[in-house]
Amino acid sequence: MPKINVYLPDDLAAAVRAAGFPVSPVCQEALATAVRKVNRARNAISAIRDPGFDPGQHPALGGSLQSRMTPRLDEVFRLARPTDGGPAGTGQLLLGVLEEGHNLGLRLLQAVDIDLDELAGALRQADPTEQTLDAGGPITDPGPGPDLTRPAWRAVATALEAAIELGHNYLGCEHLVLGLAAETDSVAGRVLRDLGADPEAARRALTSILAGYVHSRPTDPPAGTEVLSEIMRRLDSLEARVASLGAVNG
Fold this sequence. Notes:
- Helices cover about 65% and strands about 0% of the residues.
- By secondary structure, the protein is mostly helical.
- It folds into two domains: about 20-215, Clp, N-terminal domain (Double Clp-N motif); about 220-250.
- Helix 5 packs antiparallel against helix 9 (about 175-180), helix 6 packs across helix 11 and helix 8 crosses helix 9.
- The protein is globular.
């Protein structure tokens, strides 16, 4: 049977050994689950990019995307739903990111020097017309959110692809921004390009943002460190008491 090395932080490795976990079957199950999820996501990407894509023919697609979407991205799709009941385009999706107001997509836009107020104004002034999936009318299956135009669906596919390539097991607003920026012929893509956004620069900026976030997160000290600190505290206390007794006896 082929062997794959799995590297763990020292404290986690010690905890695993102490707990007596059956490492091999646990890792096998976790990896099998991850592979299934990635394969489903890649199948969804291929289906969306097919020129004849029809969400109604892929009933599992909405659930596959929904299972990865963060609550903030879910809210973006809700905000993007047009009041006239038509399909949401890339412009509405990007406005949804702005209107949600508390997501990593906003930080990403700012990191590539996009003024958020200027972006919102440009999106509202832009012609929202985009190619729909079905020339005969809106699509019948909304999938992960509102009905979408073809460029909006392609942006979702690119967002999902970016999440996989970055090793993320979720789909967030930051991935959607990458997808919208990459769809350069869409409403959102054109507006972002006119404001100076570059898809590759945005990808690099997101990597830097996430790396900084990981390094800045407060972490709980390992249990072993807590125990050692308590032992040292007690030794210091005992040493002080011994020194005090020695001074009195002297």
